């Protein structure tokens, strides 16, 4: 047993992966994620938005195309239940990845399909919806799986580094796609990119078969118990309330950021790719820093600060830009990296820290399903809300309906910390303590603190079934 991970939690299952196998899987996950980034970036973002616009999608259709993948996350509890019955998450995750990504081979055909009116955009929405069911199931299983592989003391550093590295890979993918889309006429440009994306996604699924998997902990749950067990945990419910609210707040505006870039600011695909490049390069340096900070002070204070910035600095940097003045957009790319390189790993790690080792897949599946449903509702409302703002905003002015939408989402995002503060996390600092210490580091000549106890971390609160 000496070769087992020495820093694992006391309640870690006895069939935890040996250290060598865990390290091997963590390295493989980097390569697998690299291939997956081509699929993710080329079946979403500016590529998907541009293709949908080419197929004649309306504002409502754009909102649905962006939010339907979140609705598909409702299938996650079913995937967790099936994986528990089979005794393996790997087999189910790989199957879902292959089917979900392979379906994208159909999307290039839609450009020449003999469908009337918005029929092509509706067909694209159907492919996105069905594919997303399998991809969401794969994502929920992968999260629980890797949560058991990566030592809990290293999660912040590892997933922060992984986020930064994959951001660079995503940058390369965006630059290649932007260069191609600007120089080749539609629909051929979209057809080639979407085909290659599907192939890269399938290659990532092949690498996923090489990952090692710890044995499942706990006894298989009935389908009803798969849902009721997580919802019976008070702290998990508090985390769920925050995450559900946050996803809704983000999706109020998220579907229309890239349409705003393309249609109002008249940015080219290469310019959008450069925006993504700036964000990814910044995230490469910021994500590991956020990860180390989260390991030291906890995920809660990091999330409280970054979600507030995502509701203030980010929307403002979009709104002050204009078609002839794009420099705020380049600043927004850095802000985008600053907030999301903290938020995405932070929510991921907090969800792992707030769930038990036993039956973790059920907790993650319910988390994925609930946040997916709330995100879908936000995206579903975003299109009609934009139409409403169009009706009350004078045309051809500097202030657009997009600005109202960004303000609406920004206000919701700014208030997310109120729900986050109710979540318990072992050893997490208070946000006030982190801010106090940050101020003292910026101004070291001042007295360290008026009340020294405010800059000390709270003593850890232990939860019997969670990792310390």
From TrEMBL:
Major facilitator superfamily (MFS) profile domain: residues covered: 190-468
UniProt xrefs under Pfam families: MFS_1 (PF07690)
Parts of the chain that traverse the membrane: 33-54, 60-84, 91-115, 121-147, 159-181, 187-208, 239-262, 268-290, 302-321, 327-350, 362-382, 402-420
GO-annotated molecular function: transmembrane transporter activity
Protein name listed in UniProt: MFS transporter
Transmembrane helix among keywords: yes
Keywords: Membrane, Transmembrane, Transmembrane helix
PANTHER family assigned: INTEGRAL MEMBRANE TRANSPORT PROTEIN-RELATED (PTHR23526), MAJOR FACILITATOR SUPERFAMILY (MFS) PROFILE DOMAIN-CONTAINING PROTEIN (PTHR23526:SF2)
């Amino acid at each position: 047993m000496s070769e087992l991970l020495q820093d694992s939690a006391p309640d870690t299952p006895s069939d935890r992966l040996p250290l060598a196998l865990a390290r091997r899987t963590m390295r493989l996950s980097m390569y697998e994620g690299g291939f997956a980034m081509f699929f993710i970036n080329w079946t979403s973002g500016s590529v998907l938005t541009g293709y949908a616009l080419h197929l004649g999608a309306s504002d409502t259709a754009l909102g649905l195309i962006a939010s339907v993948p979140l609705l598909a996350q409702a299938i996650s509890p079913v995937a967790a239940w099936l994986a528990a019955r089979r005794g393996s998450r790997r087999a189910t995750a790989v199957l879902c990845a292959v089917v979900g990504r392979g379906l994208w081979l159909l999307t290039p055909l839609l450009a020449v399909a003999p469908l009337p009116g918005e029929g092509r955009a509706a067909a694209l929405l159907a492919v996105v919806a069905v594919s997303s069911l399998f991809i969401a199931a794969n994502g929920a299983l992968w999260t629980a799986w890797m949560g058991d592989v990566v030592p809990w003391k290293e999660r912040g550093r590892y997933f922060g580094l992984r986020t930064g590295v994959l951001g660079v890979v995503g940058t390369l993918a965006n630059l290649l796609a932007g260069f191609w889309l600007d120089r080749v006429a539609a629909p051929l440009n979209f057809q080639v990119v979407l085909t290659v994306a599907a192939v890269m996604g399938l290659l990532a699924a092949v690498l996923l078969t090489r990952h090692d998997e710890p044995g499942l902990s706990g006894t298989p749950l009935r389908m009803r118990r798969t849902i009721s067990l997580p919802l019976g945990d008070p702290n998990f419910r508090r985390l769920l309330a925050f995450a559900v609210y946050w996803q809704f707040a983000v999706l109020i505006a998220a579907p229309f950021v890239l349409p705003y870039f393309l249609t109002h600011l008249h940015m080219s695909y290469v310019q959008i790719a450069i925006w993504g490049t700036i964000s990814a390069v910044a995230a490469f340096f910021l994500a590991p820093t956020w990860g180390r900070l989260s390991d030291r002070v906890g995920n809660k204070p990091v999330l409280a600060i970054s979600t507030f910035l995502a509701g203030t600095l980010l929307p403002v940097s979009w709104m002050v830009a204009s078609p002839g003045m794009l420099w705020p957009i380049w600043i927004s790319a850095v802000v985008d990296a600053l907030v999301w390189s903290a938020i995405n790993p932070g929510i991921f790690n907090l969800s792992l820290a707030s769930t038990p080792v036993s039956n973790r897949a059920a907790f993650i599946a319910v988390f994925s399903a609930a946040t997916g449903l709330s995100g879908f509702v936000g995206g579903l409302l975003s299109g009609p809300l934009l139409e409403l703002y169009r009706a009350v905003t004078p045309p051809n002015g500097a202030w657009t309906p997009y600005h109202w939408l960004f303000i609406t989402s920004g206000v919701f995002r700014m208030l997310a910390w109120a729900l986050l503060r109710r979540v318990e996390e072992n050893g997490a600092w208070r946000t006030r303590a982190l801010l106090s210490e940050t101020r003292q580091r910026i101004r070291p000549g001042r007295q360290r603190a008026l009340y020294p106890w405010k800059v000390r971390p709270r003593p850890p609160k232990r939860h019997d079934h969670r990792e310390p």
